[in-house]
Amino acid sequence: MKLGMQLDYSGGFKDSAQRVVEYEKAGLDIAWVAEAYGFDGPSFMGYLAASTETIQIGAGILPIYTRTPTLIAMTAAGVDAMTDGRFILGLGASGPQVIEGFHGVKYDAPLGRTREIIEICRQVWKRERVEYDGRYYHLPLPEGQGTGLGKPLKIIGKPVRDDIPIYIASLGPKNVELTAEIAHGWLPIFYMPERAADVWGADLAAGTAKRSPDLPPLEVVAGGLVAIGDDAAAVREFARPMAALYIGGMGARGRNFYNEVACRYGYEAEAKLIQDLYLDGKKDEAAAAIPDDFLELTNLCGPEGYVKERLAAYQEAGVSVLNIIPIGDNPTTIIEKLKSWTA
């Protein structure tokens, strides 16, 4: 099992990069760089490329709506070149608040766009002249649109790899099925090893049945807060505000992917209450309404023996990359311990 970590930028990008250098020495395998509506992700990924030597650098995630398919491919090829083949292209749909609110781009057809973007990216990396006539993307623009001067082009530079790994952040049944069909890896959130098969098993199986034999087995990236110690179980309480934000505040009533996942786990009544409280401005009450066992099963906090049991549960569920948020005075020590337990 590999170890990944979503990077924290609270001390600034340069401070974060220095910590990644330390984590790399401790055995961290993947550093994920987020892009929501702060600074862009590729700038920092390029900085990390110059600061590190062996760790994989993952986009966690680039939204599919904010760049053209070919720019996504060019960006991935660029970071992959700077890292000598250590890049992972993480893609996701984000949400309407960010895409329509911050970018002013219509949020539509996430499944169809994701499939077409990936197909175009793979053309670019193979240095083919890009010609694509999909439902959502047309390269070059068809006759009668634009100036009529567009022509098929291929990327000028030679990518380090012609098949850069693509991971998809997905939760809904059709999205997860698509991920299992065409991606190298899957980035779920609020993953419960004991219940994941009940929620996503059929979707993963349906996608895997259509998966190309040229693709390697699907990597599953999941985890949560990690704290190790006799009194570490209390640390999972730190996850309450984030869980409330996602389950209660992301999207709207009737359109919140995270709320739907909580419902599929069997927390229908709790998910409704959390959303109602959060959208009514009662954020603290919404956080208090997150079920205790939800926090326990989506994090790894407790004595050493307990954390080892949780690691085994993730491994048994098929998780191949444990994504961690280490909590404690010395995250490096936590990484070293987990690395020794998962080797």
Class from secondary-structure proportions: alpha/beta
The third-level CATH topology is TIM Barrel
* The CATH homology group name: Luciferase-like domain
- Please state the average pLDDT score: 96
Main beta-sheet strand count, sense and barrel state: 8 strands, parallel, barrel
Task: Give a verbal description of the structure.
- With 343 residues, this protein is an alpha/beta fold.
- The chain has a single domain (2-233, 298-342), classed as TIM Barrel (Alpha-Beta Barrel).
- It has 14 helices and twelve strands.
- It has helices spanning 13-26, 41-51, 69-82, 96-101, 110-125, 173-182, 196-209, 240-249, 257-264, 268-279, 283-288, 292-297, 304-316, 331-342; strands at residues 2-6, 30-33, 56-59, 62-63, 87-92, 132-133, 138-139, 166-168, 185-186, 219-228, 300-302, 321-326.
- An eight-stranded parallel beta barrel has the order 1-2-3-5-8-9-10-12, surrounded by six helices.
- α3 links the parallel β4 (62-63) and β5 (87-92).
- α3 packs across α5, α6 (173-182) packs across α7 (196-209) and α8 packs across α10 (268-279).
- The protein is globular and about 65 Å long.
